[in-house]
Design brief:
By secondary structure, the protein is of the alpha+beta class.
């Protein structure tokens, strides 16, 4: 496979990402730390591969001082995300010089989708998600529709604005309110009472005005994630990980407070395998590294698939640490049939 094979002609204009919000609150800082950890792990794994001749990394300037830049194969290009253009300009320039690219970005503000659309204009081969996959899985509402069409068990999901249009509540409290296009647990809140709902609107008023929000029933259970690599002709499933999700009692805000951990409980693994098989049978239009979040309920009838992350997730950190005999980056390239030296 050559980089030229990846050129796609799509007439639809690429979305322009909005400026990302500031990352100052505790939960947001944790998201940034996870992102930095993923970047370090990916650089370490790809740097060791003989077919990788050079890695050019466009790095958020806020992370620049926290990473070792003295690496023979790696070129660091620090940019500010204060404006879309300050990031997109060097991104487009690097695409022209690279044979392959991997985009690590949140769905929030359409960053993940916009950068992938920009990449369509060049000859660089994406190691990540396809545009077809992004159109479905970068938004939780279209993801929910995919689950429904393929008879995959999942909680009911509606747009937050629909609640004000109907006098009938579609499901009882508690609820989970989250962005349709999010970043980790950012602005994801558990609503246990009408008072919580009013307080949520007050605290997040500006974010709600700028972003499409969703509402679903809260599902009690173990939050797990299964990672996959979608190759050109096959799919590789990694061992499931348990997510360390914490919900603050006062505000109901969700946080990831630790790295995922590999799951060893045979009964839990058996139930996860059943959901995983349902997911695989749906043949989603994906490529590269993908994370699928699930909730294993009190009994098997409550097991659901929650959402799909069409990108590298924090589970990569756990998997690359725990699976000593596998270089995930090497497996990734092999599954995409990339054997020639690339930048």
């Amino acid at each position: 496979m050559s980089a030229g094979d990846a050129v796609v002609d799509i007439a639809e204009p690429a979305p322009v990402p909005a400026p990302l919000p500031s990352f100052q609150r505790l939960g947001d800082i944790a998201i940034r730390q996870e992102g930095l950890g993923m970047l370090k792990a990916l650089l370490r794994d790809f740097e060791t591969l003989p077919q990788i001749k050079k890695i050019s990394t466009i790095l958020d300037a806020r992370l620049g001082e926290k990473i070792n830049k003295f690496r023979s194969k790696i070129e660091f290009i620090e940019v500010s995300k204060n404006s879309s253009e300050s990031f997109l300009s060097p991104f487009k320039e690097q695409l022209e010089q690279s044979g392959c690219h991997l985009i690590i970005a949140p769905e929030l503000g359409d960053w993940l989708k916009a950068l992938n659309y920009c990449a369509l204009n060049g000859n660089s081969l994406s190691l990540g998600v396809s545009i077809e996959g992004l159109e479905v899985f970068s938004n939780k509402l279209s993801t929910w529709e995919f689950f429904e069409q393929n008879q995959i068990p999942t909680p009911k999901l509606i747009e937050l604005s629909d609640l004000s249009k109907s006098s009938k509540i579609p499901f009882p409290l508690p609820w989970v309110v989250k962005p349709a296009c999010g970043a980790g647990a950012l602005n994801t809140v558990k609503i246990s009472s009408p008072e919580d709902f009013g307080n949520f609107h007050l605290r997040h008023r500006y974010f709600i005005e700028k972003n499409q929000m969703t509402v679903s029933p809260f599902v009690e259970g173990e939050v797990v994630s299964v990672s996959y690599i979608y190759g050109t002709s096959s799919v590789y499933a990694f061992p499931p990980c348990q997510q360390a999700v914490y919900c603050g009692n006062e505000t109901g805000t969700f946080y990831y407070h630790n790295l995922p951990q590999l799951i060893h409980d045979p009964q839990l693994l058996n139930r996860i395998e059943k959901l995983s098989q349902l997911w695989l049978n749906s043949n989603p239009p994906l490529r590269g590294f993908v994370g699928v979040d699930m909730i294993i309920g009190k009994d098997e009838s409550e097991d659901v698939i929650l959402e799909v992350n069409p990108r590298v997730t924090s589970s990569y950190l756990t998997l690359t640490k725990e699976l000593k005999d596998i270089n995930i980056a090497q497996l990734w390239l092999e599954m995409l049939e990339i054997t020639d030296p690339v930048h």
